[in-house]
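Sanity check record (used in CI):
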Amino acid sequence: MVGADGEFMHVLNADKSGTVTVRLLKTSPVNAQLMGLYDTQAADSRLYGQNVITVHQTQSGDTIVCRGCAFKKMPDLSYKKDDEPVEWVFAAGKIDAILGNYT
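Expected output for Putative bacteriophage protein:
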């Protein structure tokens, strides 16, 4: 950050929160599993925001772990002739990444 006098200041923000979007085909059985989790967590606030989402890319060895994940809302469902994917959106409290390499 640079002030009006031209002097600078660095700002360290420890915020590691973010958003995770999972896009699934309408025919995926995972939609039924996520809907069951959504319904359970919406009914009991003690369960809300306790999800962990792990993404692992095997080719490079990248691993991303998202903790404290909560459903943002039930996905919008479309019944068009040409279906759109079902999007499940999560708010993540902390996202940590370990990047691998392509060797």
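The chain has a mean pLDDT of 91. If this sentence no longer matches the regenerated tokens, the check is flagged for review.
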